[in-house]
Amino acid sequence: MNNRVVITGLGIWSCLGTNLEDVKNSLFTGKSGIGMDAERKAFGYRSGLTGIVEKPQLKGILDRRARVGLSEEAEYAYMATLEAMKNAKMDMSWVEQNEVGILYGNDSSAKAVIEAIDIIRVKKDTTLLGSGSIFQSMNCTVTMNLSTIFKLKGINFTISAACASGSHSIGLGYLMIKWGLQKHIICGGAQEVNAMAFGSFDGLSAFSVRENEPTKASRPFDKNRDGLVPSGGAATLILESYESAMERGAPIIAEVVGYGFSSNGEHISNSSVDGQIRSLNMALNDANVKPSEIDYINAHATSTPGGDFAEAQAIDAVFGECNTMVSSTKSMTGHECWMAGASEIVYSTIMMQNNFVAPNINFEEGDEASSKLNIVSKTTERNIDVFLSNSFGFGGTNSSLIIKKFK
Amino acid sequence: MTQAEIIEKINEFLVEEFEVDAAKIVPDANLRETLELDSLDYVDLVVIIESNFGFKVVAEDFINIHTFQNFYDYINRKVEEKNATA
């Protein structure tokens, strides 16, 4: 079976805004969502830089039983999914009568785990954690909670693949629908944003310390980049078979046409040009498009010296002849980690819908590798028919997705 | 803490935490049915009682608590016992 797979709903909760319209405006104007968190410095962080993400207020929206199990990232995911389902015209009564699945990327729930352990240490009593702790603490906190809240009856599990989690969730959802195993899947990625979540990452000196200029700290591909800025939130996409979307009169936003993946088989944290090239080529082959047909690449580039250097080489190796427009929206958002692969599809689809390429802000001067790419540093109004989005993660997991304007 | 203060405090956290309509909290009403308690909710009730009154309810104690009045009486007795040993 070879079903067409379309996107019928988008939802976003990020440091660029908490709805599609605000995020569109942030992307167009090149607005940074980065700021400082003094708590992190006091906590022992090398860098206090972070994406500033608003906390949802769910009292009055969800009942107590639903709320107590939601971790921070699951709250973001709930809000993003609510928006996506609304604009996909999927109401609760329809969802209850149909087989809707969920595949969501998430790779930690550190705050919930640490707060629970702190209570046990003080109280010496596990009952006093309350009933919600277990449902907040597990990696599958997003899928277990949202599948319950939205009464989902299809596929239901979490994808943990480091910073490629969100991208693989869309890739796997695409394959399940393409092969006829499911008709409708909620895909996405979520990332907690708190001092407990990123300590070990900060400990690797991976974060930018340009604390006197927070909005200039995330500068993917720029020669003077000094590290990434952690961020988070959640992004949701509703994937459906073309037939299903047509049957229920859903608005079709775009089409998922290619998914490529690979494992580096090398170092646990270093990037691999070879691994990335394999992922890119697999996606192009799956989509049956030539590199010259890709109008825009949303790069994984996080603003680390080594990672961006490798990706620039991989993009140049595959797209070097094509002068393809490239930008990393992480220049505005910071690195949304487990969420990034999904949010960057949302960001790029917004650009596709509105005919512009969002800028790679803070790109002033390329290095030896990135100066070979066509990096878009200013908002560029341009029609996008096909885009590609890269996501790479620790352990050498790579994912590339290709999305096409629906015609 | 007087019995009236204890009752006021209990009603306050039931409305706030369990989101029950205050008008439904009457002494003879059934606690479990009014609050729509399931097995998970009882765990949260233990946490709320501990944080408000400083003692931990053991699960068996809930067996004899049927009405709100039973609940008030139980909490009042445990608070008195706690004060007596303090």
Would you write up a description of this structure?
- Chain A is α/β, with parallel strands linked by helices and 407 residues long.
- Chain A has two domains: 5-247, Thiolase/Chalcone synthase (Peroxisomal Thiolase, Chain A, domain 1, 3-Layer(aba) Sandwich); 259-405, 3-Layer(aba) Sandwich (Peroxisomal Thiolase, Chain A, domain 1), CATH 3.40.47.
- Chain A is built from 16 helices and 15 strands.
- Chain A has helices at 20-29, 38-43, 64-68, 72-87, 92-96, 110-123, 133-137, 141-149, 165-178, 199-202, 214-217, 242-247, 273-287, 305-319, 330-333, 340-354; strands at residues 5-13, 34-36, 49-51, 100-105, 156-159, 184-191, 233-241, 254-263, 296-298, 325-327, 356-357, 374-375, 380-381, 386-393, 397-405.
- Chain A starts with a strand and ends with a strand.
- Chain B is mostly helical and 86 residues long.
- Chain B has a single domain, classed as Non-ribosomal Peptide Synthetase Peptidyl Carrier Protein, Chain A (Orthogonal Bundle).
- Chain B has helices spanning 3-17, 31-35, 39-53, 68-85.
- Chain B is globular, with a radius of gyration of 12 Å.
- The chains are: A alpha/beta (407), B mainly alpha (86).
- The A-B interface holds A 63-65, 68, 123, 125, 127-132 and B 17-19, 38, 40-41, 43-44, 46-47, 50, 56.
